[in-house]
Here is the input.
Amino acid sequence: MDTQNMNTEIMEYMVWVIELVASEFFDGSKSLAYNVLNEQGVWELYIQNYDTTHSVGANAIIDEIREILTVKGVL
Here is the structure.
């Protein structure tokens, strides 16, 4: 799903994910967090799996993204 086809609920969720990632890994830089998530395919992964991922807590999301970004050599 591309950003133009995203509904408001999913967009709000993705903004929350960006805020989590920015706070945890990028000293609060939301633009850097978005760019990294987008470049590494995490943005699309979380949009495609919204039905599952939106029901887990912040800690689970942070742990999963930490693992993904570590494997990809970003962290």
